[in-house]
Task: structure prediction
Amino acid sequence: MKRPLLLGSKGCGNAIVECAFALGGVKFDYEEVDYAPDSPTRPRLLEVNPLGQVPTLVLPDGTVMTESLAMIHYANDVAPKARLIPPPGDPLRPVFYRWAVFIVAAVYPTFTYGDDPKKWVANAKGAKQLRESTDAHRERMWLQLEEVAGAPWFLGKQRTAIDLYIASMTHWRPGRKWFEANTPKIVAIASKASALPKVGPVVKKSFGWLYPPG
Ligand SMILES: N[C@@H](CCC(=O)N[C@@H](CS)C(=O)NCC(=O)O)C(=O)O
Result:
């Protein structure tokens, strides 16, 4: 049977979807692409996702999905036993929605505008400011997440896809040292998720190392 095809880049958010697929036993094919403007694989990525972002998922019937959280929903639909999202009626479901959307709609875009800031502003000074302000804004949001984080998982007893976002996104700016110094609860969640036999290898393959760092 044809499998979904995931387009991703090493060290990117496709790792979150790969972790979800691993937990759900969802089989998929993978294509490595590079979204950088001069990359030879960018045209291929643009063919399926005009935004030029990864992850991008092509379903067996040709339907294209973009947005990692949409793919988490897909994984949850095809593999509900993995309990990536609290089921309808579960009081944790609205809490999941709040923070999962916060992560993808508030935290993740700080990279969209901060990673390559000269795309968005007219000069080098503006680019430097945009990089600094998005980095600072992201730090404040991680501190907010730290405030509300449960244990052992973000939502408390129940492991959800939010923990997979944390396991991957704590490899990005502001970086391991900052997370260890400022967000011990978030680091504990990243470590706990990375200790899952199906998750650890995926995170290691994408980012090269796992929390707790050795
Ligand atoms: N909202 C998207 C964000 C995806 C995203 O920003 N991915 C990064 C890589 S981790 C990317 O493709 N960056 C290139 C760009 O935005 O041009 C999602 O949740 O999937």
Summary: The first helix runs from residue 14 to 24.
